[in-house]
């Protein structure tokens, strides 16, 4: 949400000319109405819902009125009759409005996660054969690149073929161009082979380090940084990062981005390092499987529960991880639970 004060927003936008508050807000609202997805840039959750309803042509419906009058927090099944009387509508009309509200998104950017992903293909294939993990490059030409060094007679034939008539262009210039092409081809083959060798070595080290992750899942992910792997391989961290960009590994657990084998860490109560992804997975399971939707935990309470399970993280870190997972605040989760129950 765009909840910063007007002065800060003007400063961020570089607006120095005095503008009346009403004019500035009207201009800002016009921009919000055009943004995609609908609701992006809203002041708060209620404003976000209203922008979505307006985009759907429902800005003057009962659903919009419910948002404006702030009755969403009262939406428990036993309160429907009371709310209907408060708004002067039938309970059946209230239920229809609730259906409209259930189709709204408290966090519009989550819609971007629903777009169709491009087809991904593996760069490495990992298999477990006779209790041993085997890593192979996936493309059939790996290790089979060859550079054919054309002999001089053939070069002359190529010169004639390229020019039709040797008298039209200096043969020496054409041969020089062929030598340059030969050098570029050799460099391309060498670079491709280096990339394949390096990718294979990275994959082999990742599988050796994260065997339990492959066998048991996220909870067994070991802390590992690209910098640490670079040091083990005697390579530059930037080279590792560049080679791994958009690379995937086909494993018994499915197609996985190679970046998922890396994670920062925290130190658990037992002194052992625990991967951040493991903590985030524990946080998500705690909310999804154990939380009472009518009485959701605050970030401080979640911090305490995770500490009891050996993950000593602060309230601020809980908030950061929760947002990274796309999980709303306690009040957001409570409101959405009530809407689902309606």
Instruction: Please describe the biggest sheet, giving its number of strands, its sense, and whether it closes into a barrel.
Output: 4 strands, mixed
Number of H/I helices: 15
Instruction: Please give the share of residues in helix.
Output: 40-55%
Low-confidence regions: none
Question: What is the structural class?
Answer: alpha+beta
Strand content: 5-15%
Q: What is the N-to-C order of secondary-structure elements (H for helix, E for strand)?
A: HHHHHHEEHHHHHEEEEHHHH
In the sheet with the most strands, the strands line up as: 2-1-3-4
**End-to-end C-alpha gap:** 26 Å
Overall 3D form? extended
Rg value = 30 Å
The overall strand count is 6
| Total number of domains | 3
Mean pLDDT: 77
Question: Which terms summarize this structure?
Answer:
single chain, about 350 residues, alpha+beta, Arc Repressor Mutant, subunit A, two-stranded antiparallel ribbon, 15 helices, 6 strands, transcription, transcription regulation, DNA-directed RNA polymerase, Lambda_DNA-bd_dom_sf, HTH cro/C1-type domain-containing protein
In short:
The chain folds into three domains: 6-114, no CATH class; 124-261, no CATH class; 265-341, Arc Repressor Mutant, subunit A (Orthogonal Bundle), CATH 1.10.10.60. Helix content is 53%, strand content 8%. The chain has 15 helices and six strands.
